[in-house]
Amino acid sequence: MDFDDYATDLHYDELFESDGQPRKSAVPIINRINSLPAGELQRRQREAEAALLHMGITFTVYGPGEEMDRIFPFDIIPRIVEASDWNYIERGLKQRIYAINLFLEDIYNEQRILKDKVISTELIHSGMSFRPECMGLHPPKGIWCHITGTDIVRHNDGQLYVLEDNLRCPSGVSYVLENREVLKRTFPRLFEVLNVQPVDDYPNRLLETLEYLAPDTLESPSVAVLTPGVYNSAYFEHSFLAQQMGVPLVEGRDLVVSDGFVYMRTTRGFERLDIIYRRIDDDFIDPEVFRPDSLLGIPGITGVYRAGKIALANALGTGIADDKAVYACVPKVIKYYLGEDIILPNVTTYLCWDDKERQYVLQNLDKLVVKAVNESGGYGMLVGPHASEAEREAFREKIQANPRNYIAQPTLDLSIVPAIIENHFEGRHVDLRPYILFGEEIYVLPGGLTRVALRKGSLVVNSSQGGGSKDTWVLQEDMDRMPSVTVQPRRHK
Amino acid sequence: MLVHQVPMLSRVADSIYWMSRYIERAENIARFIDVNLRLMLDIPIEVQQQWQPLVIVTGDQDLFTQHYGEATSDTVIQFLTFDSNYPNSIVSCLRSARENARSIREVISSEMWQSVNELYLLVASREAKRRAFDEPHSFFTEVKLNSQRFIGITEGTMSHGEGWQFLRLAVMIERAEKTSRILDMKYFLLLPRVDHVGTTHDNIQLSAVLKSASALEMYRKRFHRILRKQVADFLIFDHHFPRSIHHCLVQAEEALHQITGSPLGTFSNEAERRLGRLRAELDYADISEVYEQGLHKYLDSLQLKLNAVGDAIYSTFFALWPPSAGTKV
């Protein structure tokens, strides 16, 4: 299997130039693959899949009378991010997250940005994920969005854009770490040649980010990861992160609020908990404050949180900043709080809430992608050019019935990366989700989840819609720099 | 920053306990079936109806008869290995073990998780059914070895702290229970005629019982000749054999006291009290007392006492207290 017949078909390819030559950063891997004997690459692909299955990185499919474990599709051809691109992404994300955090502190307190009419008050207050319960809240150290996953895409003009922010419970980072583990086994020699930035540091950094939230007077804060339970589709990730950080993984039923604190039920009685990395949405975390029917939450935890006796990451209420209508305002947010222009641009976004923009959207449904502002996972979405007339009509009605709930964007021609399709390579569209931690400083994990739309021609990368993933190799600035270490020779008898 | 040592969550301890019991149980069933398959090869055709006892000692005979009718090698292997509606089949045990392991992946080592996962996949795969009937010996041996591998991996990769003690406690309780059932099986095994007692057939059956507990070689070292009473003596009272009931109870008690920190010979909760009392009974009993009472009856009452220990472990360590009890202890 080689790249001789591979064609980029006028898309921007992350590994190949438009003339079909490999990009400089991709030469070693292209050469390596071209040099493998026939069938070897497919064998390694199967081996990688078997490794993921045995590592239990799976989800369960329930069929008639039986259940099967499946892995999330994984393609062993990595996506490579050159150092200069990464540098740009990193600067852009740090600016973005810093500004969004100021925005969250502001709208739940003074609301200066609303009073100055930079953003409409109505737009914010009508957001489904705006939490009036959080007004006046000051989370520890002034940090709201401790963990963010921001989706970035590249259009065929070569420009990188932010497609959306995930500020509630972004998932996928465990795949970044596990995909890397698998790929190190798949292409061991390439890691020696290429200077790929390691990603293993993430759990450490995450723990530091969480521990930073403890009051300075507390010598050894206790941290836990809160999961909805084994049936949650991201359960693997919750337990993985808890394991990697060496902290307990708790469910709502393990916790209890008493005399102003949160306690864990242990074999030796109640133990106080100080910091929670929660992977439960606001809606479900406290039945006394949010949805009363939630069985996953901890009754009374919001009160403890407001009193500063438990830290939550992310803070409650962050969802308003990834409302897709608010996303559209991020360039203004950055300008307002930082006085800077946005480094990593947004995709042009039309708010259906605005009369003029809605008219434009309704007239151009066949060219646009329409998204519901609070949905994710590829749900509630219309890809205009690929949709039928009936599907477009259905969305036209939905938009008119509830304009605040929809935004639209031009259909981007997402960049492609070759993927193994049976016995040859075909280009498939990808996005990139880097992970950003906000603790004592802002840290961007050098890597990220490259999601790939495995269906031919599809632009939807979500795993629920036939998407898979790839390892993401962020290259070091200086590719010639090799670490020099001396190793004592082994002693023999 | 100081490292904060949190005691184990009750739910986690519960999952470790059941994960371990289920794996031990699956191994025992696999060994049980394998031994019986070989036993069939050594006995005359007319007494080949020896699959019934395997079902009887599970205590789930009614369920079996209801769904399968007659006990043949095929129906019993299907029931005990693959029946996913029967909670004590190998595949069900391994599924439960794995579900428990999945809920505590952050507590066990990744090697342990992978080993449980592979064990489950081994039995749940499509290939498994063909192998269990076509090449049963190799299949059941593989199940057995993979369970033992799990125990070995655990020994070498999991800190010997609270979680590990719960695991050991669970394995020992399960093992004691299973040894009592294996020994009980002999009671139900048929001999062609009463005067076959003490003959070759009797011997073959007794050595099958020993093999079912992986005890044949160790037994021979101690008693040399295979005799009914001594087989029972060995499997109940031997001090050193890792599957003798007495030995398992001593180990379980040690694990329990490691968890609570209270000294051996005392008790600070109901689990310690019941287990200590049962172990002490075995300390001072001997095989002739057992036979006075009748072996089957003795084993039956032992199983009840073991269940009571299990209940006490549950209420002492795992039962979640209602929030109204939510004051700092």
Give your account of this protein's structure.
The complex is a heterodimer of chains A (493) and B (329). Chain A has 493 residues and is of the alpha+beta class. Chain A has a domain at 348-411: Dna Ligase, domain 1, CATH 3.30.1490.270. Helix content of chain A is 29%, strand content 23%. Chain A contains 15 helices and 22 strands. Chain A is globular. The N and C termini of chain A lie far apart (47 Å). By secondary structure, chain B is mainly alpha-helical. Chain B has two domains: 8-158, no CATH class; 169-318. In chain B, 71% of the residues lie in helices and 0% in strands. Chain B has 16 helices and no strands. Chain B has helices spanning 10-42, 52-56, 61-68, 73-82, 90-102, 110-124, 126-134, 136-157, 162-188, 200-212, 216-223, 228-237, 245-260, 270-284, 287-293, 295-318. Chain B is globular and about 60 Å long. Chain B starts with 9 loop residues before the first helix and ends in an 11-residue tail after the last helix. The A-B interface holds A 53-56, 66, 69, 211, 219-222, 225, 229-230, 235-236, 239-240, 242-243, 247-251, 253-254, 256-259, 263-272, 299 and B 1-4, 6-13, 84, 99, 102-107, 110, 113-114, 117-118, 121, 162, 259, 317-318, 320-321, 323, 326-329.
Main attributes of the structure:
heterodimer; A: 493 residues; alpha+beta; Dna Ligase, domain 1; five-stranded mixed β-sheet; four-stranded antiparallel β-sheet; globular; B: 329 residues; mainly alpha; 2 domains; 0% strand; disordered C terminus
Helical amount among residues of chain A, as a percent range? 25-40%
Number of domains of chain B: 2
Query: Cα distance, first to last residue of chain B?
Result: 26 Å
Low-confidence stretches of chain A: none
Estimate percent helicity of chain B.
over 70%
Terminal residue distance of chain A? 47 Å
Topology-level CATH name of the domain at 348-411 in chain A: Dna Ligase, domain 1
Please give the order of strands in the largest beta sheet of chain A.
Answer: 3-22-21-18-17
Indicate the proportion of strand residues of chain B.
Answer: under 5%
Q: Largest sheet of chain A at a glance?
A: 5 strands, mixed
